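Shipment paperwork, digital attachment
Item: protein structure file
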Amino acid sequence: MRIVTPEEAQKMEITVRGHRNILAGYFGKLATMHDGPQAILANLPDGGARIDLHYHDVDQFQVFVRGDGILDKHRLEPVTFHYSDAYTPSGPITAGTDGIGFITLRTGCTSGHFAMPGSEHLMLTQPGRDIAGRFQTSGPLPVDGQFSREMLIEESDGVAVAGFRLGANAPLKGEPTRAGYQYYVVCSGGLMHEGRVVPPLSLALVEAGEPAPTFLAGPLGAELLMLQFATPSDRPGSDPENLPWRDAKAVRLPADTQGVG
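Attachment content:
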């Protein structure tokens, strides 16, 4: 298991269609093709900022952690999560008055932002799943030393989302790694790990085949969201070891993007 805090993430600011996007790269690289998983926090502070309808060539989760907005017709607020299969268009995402922030999680680096309409000819398969849900984080935590678990998504190929609420100083053994990669998002409170406090918006990455992770809540307790990817298969975009169009020289970015490089 690897854990990265917001302070440890790589930072970059870009401008897309006149709106700022402050990026924090937890795993992988920003705006550069690379091997391995990819996790990025996108913070759009400007009200009305918009990401148009598009798809990616890898499976992905998004976790909305700040502000509010609209995804297509769905209201977004913390902590909303969204899963989409590779080659499945989603959006547009429109930020509310105070902007919006969301974490994008992938098992492999996408080769770009494929705007729709206009990128249909690059799709290797028909659109697949497009699932959204909510992890309620406003309720009371369990008593000290105890935790609760809520299964939010459970698909036959391993795609799953679970929410954990931990009381103060509660130990937790996470989900078995029976499918693809797992990510854990610290939504509130904090964890104790290797002598340090792991604050909100930290990410833990567990690779397939690793032992189930163990966590220990801090004195304020914690709320965690676990997001698990599918068992790799021949479905395009599901296997991080077999991704198409790996171009080491460039990554396809939204139109009118400035500040990269």
